[in-house]
Amino acid sequence: MITSAALCPAPPLLARELTGSDPVAPELRQACLDATAALLADGPDVVTVVGVAAISRAWPAHGGLDLAAYGPGLVSAEPLVPLPLGLGARLLDQAGYSGRRELQSVGEHEPAAACAALGARLAGTALRVALLVMADGSARRGLKAPGYLDERSFSFDATVEEAVRAGDLAALLALDPVLAAELMATGRAGWQVLAGAMNGRRPATEIRYCDDPFGVAYLVASLRAGG
Q1: What is the pLDDT of residues 191-222, one digit of tens each?
Q2: What CA–CA distance (Å, rounded) separates 86 from 92?
Q3: Nearest to 36 by CA among 99, 111, 115, 80
Q4: Looking at residue 25, what is its pLDDT?
Q5: Which domains can be identified in the chain, with CATH numbers?
């Protein structure tokens, strides 16, 4: 049964090797670390990192980032996993977690029902399950954003934030996958996995960060279902 969850974005800048000594987005980095620490404070039996990728599948529990894809000369650990999963695993490492972990991708084109079913399955893998969901919001929130400006991004991201803030995660299952794709909101499937794992429960939530410093919506939150 799921007892707690953390929601973090998955930008490459969370990998310190890609930013050097320059403290890029330090508030975002700290919020992700704090959310991960809070996730572990509940003493879960297993922590499952969920992130969006090309397909839905389980990955090696101690897989690493393909850093060479982002910076020439950087050495990557083996085996390699998708960026969101690798960043989530790093957060667990930085928090000193040495317990059971699983890495699970969800296909970016999976429909809401399939995402919810995956979340329900993950929630049943142990007595006390914690989810670390790595998910980005829209990437079209400014003229210099990766996808340029699309005014629809603001209401879309506000809907996600309001649902998480209120603990009404079932509302995330109603997100339009076509609109999400148009807005480059790659986290849509991950949010819907989280909603499926909660299975209608309304967790207590804490928003730790909500901003778009690079034209991409980043939301960090802690969610506690209890149990």
Answers
A1: 999 999 999 999 999 999 999 999 999 999 99
A2: 10
A3: 99
A4: 84
A5: 2-224 (3.40.830.10)
